[in-house]
Amino acid sequence: MSAQSLVGPRLVEVVGSWHLYGSDGLAGPMDVWLIDDRGAVTHLTTGSDGCLIVEASKPHIGYDMGTSGRVTMGAIGEKTPFADHIGEDVLAVREEHAPNTGRVALELTFLTGRVRCESWAGDLRLTSV
């Protein structure tokens, strides 16, 4: 999907998925779903080739992977930089691309700041900028 379609709507909810293994605590989310005031849901995750995937798709449910741990789902709450911008309109987006990979980063601008989403060594990394 075009990242420009994110501009305009108000962010009303953010859902994430986390891989839990043994007694390890939560690391950053593997996936994030942005839900806007128009009901659109945008999924952000990383691809096997290191790209940042931005697609329209709804969150799935958590699942057990046996000895490899489990994937849990839930509202982001205060766990990512998006938490500071719930209730704000997306004012602008900026993408970064790399040769042979495609999109590797997406920066969303809100009235009170920006959130950078990027594929970093195969993981989804979210930071406030």
Write the layout of secondary structure elements.
Elements: E1 11-20, E2 31-36, E3 41-46, E4 52-56, E5 63-64, E6 70-75, E7 92-98, E8 102-110, E9 113-120, E10 123-128
Antiparallel strand pairs: 1-2, 1-6, 2-3, 3-4, 5-6, 7-8, 8-9, 9-10
Task: Summarize the entry for a quick read.
Helices cover 0% and strands 50% of the residues. By secondary structure, the protein is mainly beta. A hairpin with a 5-residue loop joins strand 5 and strand 6.
What this model shows, in words?
With 129 residues, this protein is mainly beta. Helix content is 0%, strand content 50%. The protein is built from no helices and ten strands. Strands 4-3-2-1-6-5 form a six-stranded antiparallel beta sheet, with no helix packed on it. It is globular, with a radius of gyration of 14 Å.
Comma- or semicolon-separated keywords:
single chain; mainly beta; 10 strands
Radius of gyration: 14 Å
* Total DSSP helices: 0
| Element-by-element helix/strand order | EEEEEEEEEE
- What shape does the CA trace take? globular
| Helix percentage range | under 10%
Note the gap between the termini. Answer: 24 Å
Low-pLDDT ranges: none
Strand numbers in spatial order across the main sheet = 4-3-2-1-6-5
Strand content: over 45%
> Tally of extended strands?
10
Structural class: mainly beta
Mean of residue pLDDT?
A: 90
Describe the main β-sheet briefly: 6 strands, antiparallel
Whole-number total of structural domains = 1
